[in-house]
Amino acid sequence: MNEKIIAGMATTGERNSLKKSIYSICTQVDELIVYCNNGSFPENFEKPDNVVFVYDEALGDIGDLGKFYSLIKKSGILITVDDDIIYPENYVNTLKPRVSREKVYGVHGTIFNFPILDYYTKNRNVYHFESHCTEDIKVDVVGSGTAIFTDELLEDFDLNSHLKYKNMADLLLLELSLKKGIKRYIIERPRGWLKEVKNDNSIFSHSVLDKSTKFNTGYLQTYFINKLIKVPSNLNLGIPINFGGVEHINYFNNFVSKLNISDEHYIVCKMEDYVKMKNWTNPVRLLSDIYFENGYFDVHYKNYDIYSFSNLDVIKKSPLNRLVTKKINIKKRIESVAQMIEICEFCIKNKILYLDIDTENLHSEVSKSLNSNSSKLDATQIFDFVLKNKFQYL
Question: Which of 194, 182, 274 lies closest to 21 in space, CA to CA?
Fold first, then answer.
């Protein structure tokens, strides 16, 4: 393996942290290539010799994908970094021994529960790069601002065919790794090893606050993550828990995190409880009963004392890799896309995931937004309709 280390970064040039980020990482790599999305290079900056600023007039502003543009056709160990993170002086030396053709490593990562209702704000377990971690952990998504991998990941990579991932570089990294069967991990580290420079113009902040800007890609990321990852096949031991009587369901997180169980275990709850979840800060996956035949767990949900998880009820049952569907017929006229969205959201919440509508009773606006001649919508089409039309990105 070529031992040359090359780092890729993207910037708008607006962040005060840019120079500090560059200085913190450039001394640890052979070359740092910075894609400048605004088309101009930083001024009044004593540029280190191994730092290169680039811009492609044909592509223009490609957001955080610029960090991958910089690494195309490069040979060696590749690192993607962000312009609002300060990296410790032992960053590369800590990550480098882990480099493998079979794995992507990083410091920031996310594990999702199912179904994924929102990429940023619900039903996920985030290992933030500033937080401590006591061991290497397998994750669903590695943050591309903290990733290291071999050049084989970008073999035959065509950026033009992946521009849909603009300001969603983490999902580009996920897609590339999935196609090559590469697993994703975050590493053990102390708290505060990497330091974030807070700013208001981040993809995360704009997406969480649902701002009307190019940085708000939260709804798109929700759409794409549901396309990219599915319920893991190793889950076969379910722990049914009734969260219905708990005002703040996340109080359970601390206790669930202490369960000494294998990665074959998962927790299952009713959909009406699942939709109340915010962050799920423990390694045991949480699934809605929407992945099981109707009623299977209805008689098995157990009320646990919030301060004790003794005598766990464990049921040997593998979740389906699809959403269980009930059928509903809509015969009344649907006058607007908003009304159709309400119907679809009702179906999702109530596990009615097979929708039969009368196409002759659809307003033309609704018919166009459905983009289908069929009067029958399955689970995937219902989710897609909400994600595409609620946020109107198509």
Answer: 194
Alpha helix locations (H) across 213-262?
218-228, 253-256
Using CA atoms, how far apart are residues 321 and 233, in angstroms rounded to an integer? 8
Integer Cα distance of 79 and 105 in angstroms:
10
Pairing assessment for the beta strands 5-11 and 315-316 based on DSSP bridges: unpaired
How far apart CA 237 and CA 312 sit, in angstroms, is 11
The token duo for 298 is 């209805």
Comparing CA positions, the residue from 51, 79, 84 lying closest to residue 67 is 79
Give yes or no for a contact between 14 and 201, defined as CB atoms under 8 angstroms apart. Answer: yes
Query: How far apart, in whole angstroms, are the C-alpha atoms of residue 281 and residue 205?
Result: 20
Which domains does the chain possess? Answer: 5-200 (3.90.550.10), 237-316 (no CATH), 327-390 (no CATH)
Please give the C-alpha separations between residue 252 and each of 82, 126, 278, 280, in angstroms, as whole numbers.
Answer: 34, 16, 12, 9
C-alpha 106/C-alpha 126 separation (Å) is 13
Q: Which element (helix H / strand E) includes 348?
A: helix 337-349
Angle at 105 between CA 101 and CA 110, to 5 degrees: 130
What strands, in cross-sheet order, belong to the sheet with 354-357?
327-330, 354-357, 376-377
C-alpha 297/C-alpha 135 separation (Å) is: 34
CA distance 327 to 378: 9
Count of all residues that appear for the chain in the document: 394
Q: Which two tokens stand for residue 118?
A: 């929102």
Each residue's pLDDT tens digit in the chain (394 positions)? 678 999 999 998 777 889 999 999 999 999 999 999 988 888 888 889 999 999 999 999 999 999 999 899 899 999 999 999 999 999 999 999 999 999 999 999 999 999 887 787 777 888 999 999 999 999 999 999 999 999 999 998 999 999 988 888 999 999 999 999 999 999 999 999 999 987 766 665 565 556 666 666 667 778 888 889 999 999 999 988 887 766 666 666 666 777 778 889 999 988 777 877 777 877 789 998 888 876 566 667 787 776 666 678 888 888 987 766 566 778 788 888 888 888 888 877 666 667 888 777 888 888 887 766 667 777 667 777 877 777 554 3
- The reported pTM is 0.81
**CA-to-CA distance for 292 and 301, rounded, in angstroms?**
14
